[in-house]
Amino acid sequence: MDLYSGMSNDFIRDSQRGTIAGVMADRFFQHYRYRVSDNEVRSWQNSLARMAGVLQLGQFNDQGIIVEYKLPLSSKRLDVMIAGNSMADVPSAVIVELKQWDKVERSEIPECVSTFVGGGIRNVLHPSRQASDYRDYLLDNHTSFSEGKVHLSSCGFLHNLKRADNPVLFDASFDSVIATSPSFVLEDTGDAFVEFLSQCVGKGSGTEVLREVLTGKERPHKRLLDHAAKTIANEPAFILLDEQRVAFNRVRSLVRTRQGEHSKGIVLVHGGPGTGKSLIALHLLADLAADGYVAVHATGSKAFTETLRKTVGKRAATLMKYFNNFVGANSGDIDVLICDEAHRIRKTSNNQFTKAANRSTVPQIEEIVNASKMSVFLIDDQQVVRPSEVGSSALIKEIAEKNGIPLYEHFLEAQFRCNGSDGYINWVANTLEIERTANILWDVNDPFEMKLVNSPQDLDQMIRAKVDEGNSGRLVAGFCWKWSSPQKDGTLVHDVQIGEWSRPWNAKEGSSTLAVGIPKSNFWATESGGINQVGCVYTAQGFEFDYVGVIWGRDLVYRPGRGWVGQAEFSEDSVVKRGAKSNPVEFLKLVKHTYRVLLTRGLKGCFIYIEDEQTRNFVMSRIENA
């Protein structure tokens, strides 16, 4: 998806007439269903006019132009791509990242500079690094480039910035990335920049190359767990982009500069579903462990951790721990402790199997911080789904302040799940009234495939059809049905019953004897037999599938005049419903969070069956032209 595409002559004309930004703003509204800010429109107009001037100066009259091109399966958009044949007569394209900066300063974070953006001075990726990452991402996720049909280059163009006043941009520390993805400034406009573009796409004939790029297919997304082994072996199978890499570089730099010091540090990385928190966590583990640091990955999810351990093999599995594994650890034993899904941190590390003599009164968060020199918390405050889960941004900030530990915050915004649809994530949050967003109505033309279905039979068939086509897919449900232990022959009871349709939950944790083809609970999300069972939030959280089918039970319903209502009498989750009478507001919050998690597990699509008719009608009212 792009906001503008055509030939270079048309682009130059539209830019000079001042109409291009308006065309892009209208297309943005048609796709995202909300208006882009006036500041962004002005930014487009200014930067694209400068880009058009370069093309006119270099007499690029037969090249294809794509503006604001959305990266596959991501909400990120690159600024400009120019397509044509290179001087070697090879079909080629070049990414140009446009910056209106007029001053850059040194940043303490590797591969970053400091400049005024978003109303303040911020650490941002060097333009060459950003453009290079976009190039690598497309090489990994777009068939036109991954199959070698089109050669791809990248660069940055800082059209307001003067070289003499900003030597930091060309500091020796950036030499390697500038060598492969150069950055050009104001005085390069008619010289070096034009020459670079000429080498990349100077022979023109851009019509066919443009068509190839626009019709090329998005290569299937590489799911995190499929490539964890390569990541842990320090062979990253994913590309970190923008704020992901800034957060990664910040942690890596802090760990290295604090080596040998006794002081501690905390990094807090915020991000909603699909923003790449687990990706950053695994990159950090691979990178720091390869450099000889004592690096440990920890979660509160047994299914997620055990699946990671199985995927990466026994040797790397020793790096995968649980939040409750640090009771009595010596202070600073670990160089860096990476806490993925930190919202699942518990009050203490005690559980039902902890002997009375071994029970600890120390909060789990304190055990984690004590055990490591550098603690990294990757968190989504709106994924707390149990009363015992106390992990929150506020708690982490409190522990940092209490112990005088420096805290560094990063925010992930780009969406890599839900087909890169910010709109879908925002629509879910708005519909559930978790937060107000601009996405009140769902646009049925969005690339993310979201459908309400009329029956659980339809839901089951649709997910199976997607799996038969080679996609991954699972059924999940709210915890509204009892959960039986396996029968004597190892088969599962069909607990999830709706009319004539029924399916079993995934196997209970600890079930030892299961019939052939039934995966253990920890591997329901990844073994093929999982398609025959229904997962709940505890087995689905942390995982992603190409397509997810959600059964929305009666524990969360919508009532006109009252809004969302939590119905604990329809919940079979004894832990969550225990305090519902005394604290119905908390119960409502937790079930809302539960459905937010379930509804955002899909990479390409989400199909939904809603039991309650009034709730279904309300959700239907939030779908445009439904």
Show unreliable segments.
none
Strand share of the residues? 15-25%
Q: Structural class from helices and strands?
A: alpha/beta
**How many strands?**
24
Query: Per the principal axes of the C-alpha atoms, what is the gross shape?
Result: globular
Number of helical segments with 4 or more residues: 21
Q: Estimate percent helicity.
A: 25-40%
- The quaternary state of the protein chains shown equals single chain
Radius of gyration: 26 Å
Distance between the amino and carboxyl termini: 23 Å
The major β-sheet equals: 6 strands, mixed
Give the strand line-up of the largest sheet: 1-2-3-4-8-9
What is the overall pLDDT average? 92
Number of domains: 3
Provide an overview of this structure:
The chain has about 625 residues and is α/β, with parallel strands linked by helices. The protein has three domains: about 5-215, no CATH class; about 225-410, 3-Layer(aba) Sandwich (Rossmann fold), CATH 3.40.50; about 420-620, Rossmann fold. The chain has 21 helices and 24 strands. The strands form six sheets. The protein has a six-stranded mixed sheet with strand order 1-2-3-4-8-9, with helices on both faces. Strands 12-11-13-14-10-15 form a six-stranded parallel sheet, with helices on both faces. A five-stranded parallel sheet has the order 16-24-21-17-20, sandwiched between helices. β6 and β7 (about 120-125) form a beta hairpin. The longest helix has 20 residues, at about 40-55. The two termini are about 25 Å apart.
